[in-house]
Model the fold of this input.
Amino acid sequence: MNDTLTSDVIGRRVEVNGEHATVRFYGIVPPVAGLWLGVEWDNPDRGKHNGSHEGTVYFKCRHPTGGSFVRPNKVNFGVDFLTAVKNRYVLEDGPEEGGKEQIVTIGNKPVETIGFDSVIKRQSQLSKLQEISLRNCAVHCAGDKGGIAKACPNIRNVDLSKNLLSSWDEVTDIADQLRHLEVLNLSENKLRFPSESPSPSGTFATLKVLVLSRTGITWAEVLQCAAGWPVLEELYLEANDISISERPVDILQTVKLLDLSSNQLIDENQLFLIAYLPRLEQLILSDTGISSLHFPDAGIGCKTSMFPSLQYLVVNDNRISQWSFINELDKLQSLHALSCLRNPLTDGSRADSTRQFIIAKIGQLETLNKCKILPEERRGAELDYRKAFGNEWKKAGGHQDPELNRPSEAFLAAHPRYQRLCLKYGAPEDGELKTQQPFLLRNQLLTLKIKYRNELDQVIEKQLPDSMTIQKVKGLLSRLLKVPASDLLLSYESPKMPGREIELENDQQSLQFYSVENGDCLLVRW
Done:
């Protein structure tokens, strides 16, 4: 390799004993004879210095221990795309015995097979390959022009993560030969991107999913390249130190999923720059450090025009500590799913009550932290929330009489949905509020009517703790009515919702879970 090295190696990505680095220097380092490569390691703990030796600066590193000098013969400069594919996927003819024995080469390891299935063999032929993974295979370039298109014409999904690609041009040379390419993973390649928008060439005309996590790309470079991604639907930009500096205009208009996780420079004002992507359905903002959110175009109880198609928002591992953040999410027109794990607001011993509050505050939410919100859970959460803040509502000017019901602006700002919950379930009555504290009444006794027999013509009255599970209620009724508990079907009616019967179908849940209240009527059938 020494004989062929030139100064063109500067900027090349290399591998040394399993560690990846970028070549920053090529030449002599006195007083030691011979050629050296100065490399900046991806892992700065692997290096020894910052590119200086005995007072002379040969190259610069971002980290004071990110650099080393290594001999060229210790460095792996990688292989071309087609060589990597053949190393991993090619079937080689081996010694035959009755025409049945073959050698299959998988990851450079020969495996003898006898009676190898012809269908599997056909799928393994390069011309039949549609999905390939070349992760960590030291790919650095396309290779001979036209070679990929000839050998692998049907590839649609390529994983090129953690290779030795050093520039977007090298990526383009590969993709230009994959005319059906739909999914491309380039994560963990430290790439140089063009300083100007590349001329549209149709190279990525069919590309739908692009992963550029940990590539060092900037937002400006995303926008420069995006014109070449006319049908892109999913874009992953995790951990690139991205700061959103400009609004996409006539680009990224087809994107449905955008992952901006672990970009700590992003704040709520930057999010406004991507708020009008018309088809954006999923936005991932985990570990960005975001703590606040406000949609200035929408007042209390109104919907924002921003993020019109957003259905799923992920804000895990952030600094969200205020309920105002959750209140704002109710302004999103299409939001149905939210993941909000490991935030100050959601951590701690009150996780169950926090979940109920979030459900009550975001009216259209159907899934929270990947758990579906059943109608019974929503009803219970909204009723509990309505009770929990009833005293505060009254003190702020709330009243059961609609003519006198004028809660303060401060209360409405803190509880934007409260008025709607009162319309839905009725305003909280004084009797409900005297002893009510949020989520603490676990052993309150409920006075319930119990109707039984198939005609429901027999009525008794019982006091039951609201923490009692449906299973235990059935056990009590089984002893009382001399009917096997497994035969009992329970439901209840509430005077507040005349004409509606709610099934108590989960034996492990409590009466409180179903929001059974004083004066309600249990219906028992068998």
Remarks:
- Residues 93-100, 104-108, 111-120, 435-443 have pLDDT under 50 and may be disordered.
- The longest helix spans residues 375-388.
- Residues 186 and 430 are 62 Å apart (CA to CA).
- The chain has 14 helices and 27 strands.
